[in-house]
Amino acid sequence: MIDIDRLSSGFATWMAGQNFQNPYSPATIRIYGHTVRRFLEYSGSDGVLDISEAGIHIVRKFVTNGIDGTISPKSTQTVRISAIVLFFDYLESEGAVLMNQARIFLDDQKRKRGGQGGKPATRLKPVLEWDEIDRLAFESGRLESIAGIRDAALVGLILDTGLRASEVCALTTANGESYLTGRLRVIGKGNKERLVRFEASHASRMQSWFRMRHRIRAPNERLFVTDQGNPLTIGVLYMIVKRLLERTGIKKAQQGPHLLRHTAASIWLANGVELKQVQENLGHSNIGTTSRHLHLLAK
């Protein structure tokens, strides 16, 4: 029988250790750990008694199987395969398996997508168009409730700064004051600090939220909280953005805060900000990643 607790715990410890040049964030460790635990449970239910017996067919079924026999969404498949590839890397390092079955599956998928030569197809980053940005800004600022004022400030801040969801949720009220100056220091992936420089185009919305935030009794200094004063989580942030997009009638391949992050990068580049500065703002280690946002928005 597969020792799920031991393998899950060992994998989480390995991810959090000194094994990587760019360490994984706590959010990634949590998501990958949950995915691997589900993979182990799935393998056990399929008759696998030892993890070394989990072949490519088990990986394929786990990655692609959705609810009630359907095919799982591409976004779900991406998270699953990323987590399982890393898990098999861990197993290889421990001598528990001889080959990374998940990587074999991934390479096979790339060959199928890319055809001759095995190069996968390239997709442009989804971003909001100028009119969609205006529509979203209008919709997010339409309600005068606590949540409405907060959400307007949230959307404005991400469009101005391009912060990751985890970085937004970790902001304090002091960070909010810094946002108004157009300079914001944040701790990003790998516990690395960076300075984000931008134009605070939505400063008035943040000031409105400040006035409301000071009225909310909260046992913390987090900038964005719920009506009850609890810190905003990544999951709640995702649902806020997703629902605003739905209310606005905007349909994109991405529906959460990362869509706004891509849009922020594209706005900067369309407005003539140097590519190197955009890279630094986003916290990208590779400028090639940043360059994918070029020309996605016309000035």
UniProtKB/TrEMBL annotation:
One Pfam family it belongs to: Phage_integrase
Position of the signal peptide: none
Keyword DNA-binding in record: yes
Domain Core-binding (CB): 2-92
InterPro entries for this protein: CB, DNA_brk_join_enz, Integrase-like_cat_sf, Integrase_catalytic, Integrase_recombinase_N, Integrase_SAM-like_N, Tyrosine_recombinase_XerCD
All copies of domain Tyr recombinase, residue ranges: 123-299
Keywords: DNA integration, DNA recombination, DNA-binding
One biological process term in Gene Ontology: DNA recombination
MF (Gene Ontology): DNA binding
Family: Belongs to the 'phage' integrase family.
Record's protein name: Integrase
